[in-house]
Amino acid sequence: MELTFLGTSAGLPTKERNTQAIAFNCLPYENQIWLFDVGEATQHRILHTGVKLGKVSHIFITHLHGDHIFGLPGLLTSRSFQGGKDKPLTIIGPKGIAKFIQTALDISQSNLNYPITVNEFNTETELNIDGFHVQALPLKHGILSVGYRITAPDIEGKLEVDKLKRLGMEPGPKYQEVKANETFEYNNQTYQSKDFKGEKKKGKVITIFGDTMPCQNERILADQADVIVHETTYIEGEKHLANDYYHSHIEDVLNLMDEMNVKRGLFTHLSNRYELEDVQMIEEELKSKYKNDFYFVKDFDAFQI
Ligand SMILES: [Zn+2]
Ligand SMILES: [Zn+2]
User: Fold this and answer.
1) Which domains are present in the chain?
2) What pLDDT, on a 0 to 100 scale, did the predictor assign at position 238?
3) How confident is the model at residue 239, as a pLDDT?
4) What is the distance in A from the centroid of ligand 2 to the CA of 63?
5) What pLDDT, in 10s, does the model give residues 95-126?
6) What is the CA(145)–ligand 1 centre distance, in A?
7) 229-286 pLDDT, tens digit each
8) Which of 148-152, 190-194, 220-224 shows the lowest mean pLDDT across its residues?
9) Buried b (16+ CB within 10 A) or exposed e, 50-68
10) 38 C-alpha vs ligand 1 centroid, how far in Å?
11) Residues that place a CB less than 5 A from ion ligand 2
């Protein structure tokens, strides 16, 4: 799986950073891409990446602030002309997102040539999508903002061919049966498939947070995650300034990582006051103080998970 950051600025775009959007590539599980938030001009950013709009099957919106949704109408209409024809799209987001989309499309007399489903929720939601489990819980941002905890499907252990051969089973269609079922029969005997497979690997957990100040639900969403993507609007200075505006300070997020045993933090949504050079300096300073595995991401950064 891969996360590509298409916009990493908070509130306003800068010359270096666009407003919020992330592409999540579901391969090797599914050949599809999920977007998380669609800030203004996300489609322009996408043109510089390998992301194909026709492959975008789901769009998750964390909250309805403009820096997270103003790129949505343009991206939806372009999708009609960029490989999206007849390919269904599902949009998941807080209540109000359907009205926003419908109004923009109606007023501009835009027609989409593919079916669209908008899946709105009031406070929280839980979904199963092609074997992925997605849980959304409300955060604390003055407007409903959620974090999405994505659990990838477990990876089945490899078949232990030697053991099967010892039973007398030669490679063939029967092996598929062992792979796909809990039990299988051979020579009138029933066997447990797990006895002929290597150890199952737990699916990875990736949590993508909407804007928020510290709150209890963050802990639930971040618990033991392999990766969290979190806003760090303020990466230095007084902590209370961040929280006064319902945002997070870098110390809040590093504490969350420690407390909930998070393996890696990818930090985005940086205040437009910081230029890339400043961020680099601050990052070096923080890394000398904190042991956590974290990065301040830039536009177009991509991470394998
Ligand atoms: Zn924001
Ligand atoms: Zn916001």
Assistant:
1) 2-155+201-304 (3.60.15.10), 161-196 (no CATH)
2) 85
3) 86
4) 7
5) 999 999 999 999 999 999 999 999 999 999 99
6) 10
7) 999 999 998 888 888 899 999 999 999 999 999 999 999 999 999 999 999 999 999 9
8) 190-194
9) ebebbbbbbbbbbbbbebb
10) 11
11) 65, 211
pTM for the whole structure: 0.92
Looking at residues 58-74, what average pLDDT do you find?
98
